[in-house]
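Sequence in, structure out.
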Amino acid sequence: MDLLLASTPTPAASTGGGFDLIGIILWPLKWAVEAVLVAWHWLFTWMGLPPAAGLTWVLSIVGLVIVVRSALIPLFVRQIKSQRKMMEIAPELRKVQEKYKGKRDQLSREAMSRETMALYKKHGTTPVSSCLPLLVQMPIFFALFSVLNDVTRHYQAGIGGVGLLNAELTAEFYNAKLFGVASLHETLIQAIETNNTAAIAILATLVVLMIASQFFTQLQIISKNLSPEAKTGQAYQMQKIMLWVLPFAFVFSGVFFPLGVVIYWFVSNLWTMGQQFLVIREMPTPGSEAAKAREERLARKGKAIDSSGKVVPMEKYLAEQQRLYEEAEKARAAAPKRQQPVSKQRAKKQAQKQPPSPKSADQSGAGGAAS
């Protein structure tokens, strides 16, 4: 352990002694990324793969994706629940917005903000919580980018990374080539500058696949997993815009990112696409097309979803629906009947048409006898 700590440079040492805030923040994440990457590399080498082969390092990057995305599953589940709650309170949010529509004074804005925050607090959700997995993964992605981006500089200096990626492994990674033609530290720009046609083809193909996987994942959400109410709000319009805007960002990123980072991003997108497919199929948003499709699949199997969201046999579901219907009928019968409001003139006419009550008749008879 002492040897390991002695061989691990500190953030200040890795930056030449100068103060580097970003380097200090990313240092523990870079250490963890290197540890996972080296662990997978050791495993594949132990299984018999050549340690300096590009395939060995690519599989290690895939293993890194598996570890990172598996660790994010609890956050992803929380994200799904938060998105559901946001969709549930969407009608209430619209009412608040309509209430203060056109009011631009400071008091109205503050009141609108208070009522909106009260809704979030009541339902236990916020718009930010639906972005948690992405927000958590971005620092890890930056750490990975930094590790792979520094391979060339570290190799030329004859040193290793911040942790277990020592000088020997750094040299292996630097010299590793996918299919023997594309270096993992090479970007598309560098491949074009060196006229490496094979590397250009590999990088361009991966960038296209990365964009396509991201586009398809987003398309699944807005086409199948949104309720009709959700498709009428501003959030839906923003999602439609992002569906077409994001690919341009990926094109820019894919041009300047090293091959290793592009592979990580593409495999991570595949994970997201598969995860999203399972969620939409098994836990769709109520009222969405995906929810209707799931109900039809369950009906063909003689099952249905009860009021608590559990899958039950059709007989139990029908019995529950009958019970709920009877309870609703009893509640409606017990509720006092509401009288329709009438104008004063109509009420006066109705009072004149009504026959006198027995009490008033007795009083009038008594008055006649007295006279």
